Amino acid sequence: GQSSSSEKADKEGGKKLVIGATMLSMQNEFIVNVNDEMTKKAEADGVELISIDAERSPLKQIEQVESFIAQQVDAIIMNPCEVEASSPAVTKALAAHIPIINVNSATSAKPTAFVGSDDAESGRIAMNYIAKRLGGKGNVVMMHGYMGQAAQIQREQGAREVLKQYPGLKLLAHQTGEWDRAKSMTLMENWIQSYGPQINAVFAQNDEMGMGAVKALTSAGLKNKVIVVSIDAIPDALQAVKNGTLDATIFQNAEQQGAKAIETAIKIAKGQPYDKETLIPFELVTKENISKYQK
Amino acid sequence: MSQSQEYILDVRGLSKTFSGIKALDNVQLAVRKGEVHALMGENGAGKSTFMKILIGLLKPDSGDIFFEGAPLQVKNVHDSLKKGISMIHQEILMVPELTVAQNIFLGRETTRFMPGWLDDQTIYRKANEILTQMGVSLDVRTPMKYLSVAEMQMVEIAKAISNDAKVIIMDEPTSAISDKEVATLFSIINDLTKKGVAIIYISHKMDEIFTIADTITVLRDGRYIATHSATELDTNRLISLMVGREIDSLFPDAVELGGQEAISVKNLGRKGSFSGISFTVKAGEILGMAGLMGAGRTEIARAIFGLDRFDEGEIAVNGNLVSITCPQDAMQHGIGYVSEDRKALGFIPNMTVKENITLGNLSNYTQGLFIQQKQEAKIASEVAENLRIKTHTLDQKVANLSGGNQQKVVIGKVLLASPRIIILDEPTRGIDIGAKSEIYKLIRQLTASGIAVIMISSELPELVGMSNRILVLSEGKQTTILSKQEATQETIMAHAMPH
Amino acid sequence: MKNEPTSYVNQIGNTYRLRTRGIGKYGIVLAFIALCIILSVMTPRFLTVANLVNIFTQVSINALLAFGVTFVIITGGIDLSIGSMVAVAGVVAALFAHPDTYPVIVPILMGLLAGLALGALNGFVITRTKVPPFIVTLGTMTIGRGLALILSKGRPVSNLSDSFNFIGGGQLFGIPMPILILIIAFAVCSILLKKTVIGRYMYAVGGNELAAEASGIRLNKVKMVVYTLCGGLAGLAGIVLTSRITTGQPNAGAGFELDAIAAAIIGGTSTSGGVGTIMGTLIGALLIGVISNGLDLMNVTSYYQQVVMGVIIIGAVVLDSLSQTKK
Amino acid sequence: MKNEPTSYVNQIGNTYRLRTRGIGKYGIVLAFIALCIILSVMTPRFLTVANLVNIFTQVSINALLAFGVTFVIITGGIDLSIGSMVAVAGVVAALFAHPDTYPVIVPILMGLLAGLALGALNGFVITRTKVPPFIVTLGTMTIGRGLALILSKGRPVSNLSDSFNFIGGGQLFGIPMPILILIIAFAVCSILLKKTVIGRYMYAVGGNELAAEASGIRLNKVKMVVYTLCGGLAGLAGIVLTSRITTGQPNAGAGFELDAIAAAIIGGTSTSGGVGTIMGTLIGALLIGVISNGLDLMNVTSYYQQVVMGVIIIGAVVLDSLSQTKK
Ligand SMILES: Nc1ncnc2c1ncn2[C@@H]1O[C@H](COP(=O)(O)OP(=O)(O)OP(=O)(O)O)[C@@H](O)[C@H]1O
Ligand SMILES: Nc1ncnc2c1ncn2[C@@H]1O[C@H](COP(=O)(O)OP(=O)(O)OP(=O)(O)O)[C@@H](O)[C@H]1O
Ligand SMILES: [Mg+2]
Ligand SMILES: [Mg+2]
Q1: Do B351 and C218 touch (CB under 8 A)?
Q2: Is B61 in the same domain as B146?
Q3: Does D168 reside within a domain?
Q4: Alpha-carbon dihedral D163, D168, D171, D174, rounded to 10 degrees
Q5: How many domains does chain B have?
Q6: Could you tell me the CA-to-CA distances from D267 to B23, B340, C64, D67, D272 in Å, in that order?
Q7: Nearest chain D residue (CA) to B121
Q8: Is residue B255 part of a domain?
Q9: Contact D265, D69 (CB under 8 A)
Q10: Which residues partner with A292 through β-bridges?
């Protein structure tokens, strides 16, 4: 679709570029951050950004892409809800000769370009950190996001890969905390009842759940005995890492993902050369390197 | 305005339209202090609509209402109750989950300690006093939903008269109660009028009107016809004012028929309700069922129709023992039932007249799954015409019909299912005199075509006039079956009294 | 007796036919048209063929669910499990829809069957026990979600055959398949409700259960039919959804029940039973679809979208109710 | 109360009318006790003081919401917006709860006020228009969610003062604050419903609206009170939740409405209005809480948890209804 879009850009000459973006969920702090960076970057580069919320529904996401196609935007940025289920959106955009850029996570259908990180990587980093801290031996519990969602599946997959390498690490229990702080706090309270001091580490698939676990462990007076690691590096989590209540979080670079996504979209729309894949690595945040991440 | 001071209530030029149809057209009514003012008219004449406007449940389109000489302005029932107008509603309006006493004092609860804190103790005591005074033995702590229709009506009466009102509207207060309770009501009315309370009294029972009313106002088709002192009128004049024509003899002659035994009930009973009920009804025969309020007639009828279980006894139809566990069974054996509680069991309020009439035997107008709409409409309109159902169109919701016309719809529905045995529980409840004679004729037609009828009624003249034999109940026990010759109102009462 | 009755019945004739059910429907239609006009004025992209086709395609799934739930609500019940049934049916269909395994009719039948079975389960529990439909279907909502996760092992079931993906993504005579399915379902459901005995019985049961029973209607049969039907339509919706997103998603359909119930009620179905039409429900679903489409087109910021959405829905129904009380 | 006159009952006919307050409560209490016994046998950790305190704390938020929604359902209405009101109240409270800004009473009052205001808005629209409560509160559900996101800019509002965090996390006389709040709310709501005129009117309005109106009860006043009250309790729940997780979450409370309504109905509140008790609702909430606690304690795999949860809830209410019809 590269050649046709460049023709269009030429035809329209100086007209302002329009980019449509559909985001996984504007109720998720990390996604909101990505979206904010995209807005900032779009403003700086003088393009119009139409950004809408797919509310975690792949169906809705497809419909939104359909409506972008009907509006004939110059490029589409999609923050996919699902690997498979959001794929038809990619196919449809490409069929309509509109470039589509996936940001943050991937779909099985290949888009024009991809900007983001590999979710499984974050699970690996987190579990590796736990393994290192426990010296490869101990009991771990895991909190899932919504079951069946792409991020949940991949973060679990990454964590399990590492668990396999450490036979001394035992997965004591795993349940869904539905990405939610209150639900995870309740779940942790119940785990404390059934396992108490047996638990050595908690891996929560996002920071919200990590914070819930920390809260429950602190109330039970167990926090200093249990390692908690989660993913996203939201401000609350960074503060907690600084205070030493959360042992580690995994930083996903919203700023870069957002900015790079817009950058790539503009390049494609203008027919300039662009990177087909921009991988932004996850970074482990602990007390040692916290100052780098907290503004 | 020079309203005559003697009129406590004076209504002029009142009109009310329901979606383009005039229910009331420029009607008037003037009620004096301390009188019983009867409001008469056929089913659908507009009586209830009129009264609902007075109490504030409906808003008039135009018209003036003067109360105690001043224009009456009520936004809602709360205001009119406060002003001193209260009402017994034709359709019993009760909260089923609340107790008898709580219903009686609903909206004017006594409180103690602080505003808003209920004093149920006092409510129970006062309610008990009122009911005892009325001679009704009811546990005031019983939830309302466990009461029979008759008992509910007594509670409605208690509620309205305990309100210290200046005007009490009684919209068919006696439609569900028997003579004994009617007598109680009348003595209450006498006490009230002596204290200067005005009563607006609506009833389709002519004898009641001439016993109790001082003045009579007649409505016809939503229009004012005339006001007369009761002494100026007799039954026939009143009827012709109401109906606009004469009515020939009320009870058509019975045709004696020695038909086959259609239904026989042997030793039917249910613990705590009724026992030892045995009777047979032949094809073409009418068996009357008499008893005081709560004697158990309705319960027997419900048991035969499969709405309730029974513990002992057997039922045979056409000589064959049958097992009836639900209404479908009963209907399959050719039994039809017109309930006394038409609102709960009779009709589907949101469905049209046509749909209600055909509901009981839809399968007769279907091809495959599909309803034959034309055929259905034709049959329904025949029924509606036969029974003189007053409705603007057959696609009118039954909820919007007058009470009497609703009753006709229910009867029409049951008849259309062509039962061989039909149980009529208070079939003329709330039905005007013209329609009553129609229904009597209809019942005769039914029997002439070989249908067996069990007729439950609290109106003894009706029972005596129509029945071939009368079964009398007292406190759930069958006391006797009287032949036509034996059956007089006096002998029936003698057998119905508890011993 | 043969000649047409002249007395009360026919004299008023058809003039007042509009009265009862009619106006309710017109009110919401007016609100809907008003909304469409406003949107066409505000955004030129709204009133294009492409966008209208878009809207109908998008509305189809919710409408299918809403038809089913309309039957249920008319009988005085409720079904909260439709969203989960969408997921179960979708996953089941997807499991049988891999390329070169079964002919496309198999996943379709299996998906439908899954919906019908869960619906029948609802009906069975509701008619055999006295448990309120709200609790029963809330239970099957949770159970269904669990089943979908178990069957799919918590992962999307992908790699579906082209012929299966045609159901949600293909076109026939230039019309997208979901719209065709919607049209057929609309016709069938309307006829069922308006022209058949079972439809009449639904109104009767919801209008006055006791009176319906005393008229010889078998309540349990009617309820069984209604819940099973609702399950079947949810199964169909699940198949369309799965085919449209080319994946069987165990967490698909979460929250769909509220949208479907909302469509039915906006369209005039009464929660107390006995009242409702398929046409009204379709308009309710279209109204929701148009609002959400219009807000996307006009690029309303997502947080404000929710506020505006809520206000418009209430506003539309207020308009509807005003047009009813005016008379 | 006197012994039930059986003859009267049968006269009314349908067995489900037997669902009186008394028996209904006992049935579900029995089911609840049975469940607790089974759990104590299956996992020794269940019947410990610590775990019971745990359960009550966890149940408190749902119970507060369920009390409010019990009032609403008793009057024959419904409130779907409570989950969103939790979020709005939580965010509003959090915005005023940063350390060294306002005394702790300010965030509490502001949170409550937010809930009361949204509840009053529900009541206003429901009483002024003919729009069904389902649609109105579905609208405010969406609007409320949007408001919470707008107020918080889509981000959790954290860094709250210790005194504020005490509400959900602290203890008084060794009892966790949420439990104390629950006890007080339980007492107040019970008394309101059983001992005051307004409570009586709630039953009347829901039991037979027309009869209530004909008795001079001003329906609109009662409904205003009920929806406002429900909003206030949702506001309180929002404050407790926010304090418990020490953040104002714009997406908190999503789906809470279903749990709260379920608690009320499991506890014997009838969706058709006029029936229900605060005690029953509390037991309903406890039942849900105990099931979810027990499943966690027994470490049932998460997919199966949902299936088991659904089955137990239906099972408990079946047991309840059996114990009712047996009589
Ligand atoms: N809500 C309504 N909508 C439409 N029509 C109505 C409504 N209420 C009453 N009507 C019509 O108004 C007319 C008068 O009814 P009303 O109930 O006042 O009669 P009534 O004199 O009390 O009769 P009855 O003796 O049978 O009780 C009837 O034709 C009825 O169909
Ligand atoms: N005051 C009472 N106390 C106890 N039981 C009563 C009382 N009144 C009635 N019952 C019971 O209820 C039954 C009455 O049913 P129902 O009132 O339907 O009888 P009925 O003869 O049809 O009278 P109605 O004229 O009210 O239709 C009786 O069998 C009796 O057991
Ligand atoms: Mg009347
Ligand atoms: Mg009787």
Answers
A1: no
A2: yes
A3: yes
A4: 180
A5: 2
A6: 46, 34, 33, 11, 14
A7: D195
A8: no
A9: no
A10: none
Same domain, B239 and B265: no
Q: What is the ipTM of this complex?
A: 0.88
Residue of D nearest to C141 (CA): D310
Say if the Cβ atoms of B76 and D213 lie within 8 Å.
yes
Is C244 within 8 Å of chain A by CB? yes
Please check whether residue C61 touches A, CB under 8 A.
yes
Q: Provide the 8-state DSSP code for A29.
A: H
- Structural domains of chain D, count: 1
> Do residues B9 and B147 share a domain?
yes
Does C186 fall in a domain? yes
Query: Measured between CB atoms, which of C48, C244, C252 is closest to A88?
Result: C244
Q: What is the pLDDT along chain D (327 residues), one digit of tens a residue?
A: 333 333 333 333 333 333 333 444 578 888 899 999 999 999 888 999 999 999 999 999 999 999 999 999 999 999 999 999 999 999 999 999 999 999 999 999 999 999 999 999 999 999 999 899 999 999 999 999 999 999 999 889 999 999 999 999 999 999 999 999 999 999 999 999 999 999 999 999 999 999 999 999 999 999 999 999 999 999 999 999 999 999 999 989 999 999 999 999 999 999 889 999 999 999 999 999 999 999 999 888 888 989 999 999 999 888 887 776 543
What is the C-alpha to C-alpha distance for residues B81 and C233, in angstroms, rounded to an integer? 52
Contact predicate A55/A85, CB 8 Å: no
Residue D190: how many other CB atoms lie within 10 Å: 17
Closest residue CA from atom 3 of ligand 2: B138
The parent domain of residue B34 ranges over: 3-243
Q: Are residues B58 and B169 in the same domain?
A: yes
Region of B419 on the Ramachandran plot (φ > 0 left; ψ -120 to 50 alpha; else beta): beta
Residue B239 sits in the same domain as residue B282: no
| Ligand 1 contact, B434 CB (< 6 A) | no
| Cα D138 to Cα D124: distance, rounded to the nearest angstrom | 15
For residue C53, report the phi and psi dihedrals to the nearest 5 degrees.
-60, -45
Tell me which residues of chain D, numbers 34 to 73, contact chain C at a CB-CB cutoff of 8 Å.
none
D21 located within any domain = no
Q: How many secondary structure helices (H) and strands (E) does chain C include?
A: 13, 2
Query: How many helices and strands in chain D, by DSSP H and E?
Result: 14, 2
Instruction: Write the single-letter amino acid at B117.
Output: W
Within 10 Å of residue A58's Cβ, how many Cβ atoms? 31
- The atom number, within ligand 1, closest to the CA of B45 reads 21
> Which residue on chain C is closest to D258 by alpha carbon?
C138
Helix (H, G, I), strand (E, B) or coil at D98: coil
Among B195, B217, B243, the domain boundary falls at B243
Q: Per the domain annotation, does C36 fall within a domain? A: no
- Is the CB of residue B25 below 6 angstroms from any atom belonging to ligand 1? no
Is residue B412 domain-resident?
A: yes
CA distance B412 to D323: 40
Q: Could you tell me if residue B248 is inside a domain?
A: no
CATH code for the domain of B352: 3.40.50.300
Chains C and D touch (3+ CB pairs under 8 A): yes
Give me the domain span that covers residue C118. 49-326
* CA dist B219 → B49, B228, B234, B401, B402 (Å): 12, 12, 17, 17, 14
The enclosing domain of D89 has a CATH number of 1.10.3470
Q: What six digits make up the tokens of A71? A: 């509006």
Which residues of C fall within a CB distance of 8 Å from A149? 251
Q: How far apart are CA A146 and CA C245, in angstroms?
A: 19
B143 with B134: CB under 8 angstroms?
Answer: no
- Distance (Å, whole) CA A8 – CA B11: 80
Torsion-angle region of residue B32: left (phi > 0), alpha (psi -120 to 50) or beta? beta
Is B41 near ligand 1, meaning CB less than 6 Å away?
Answer: yes
- Whether residue B194 lies inside any domain: the answer is yes
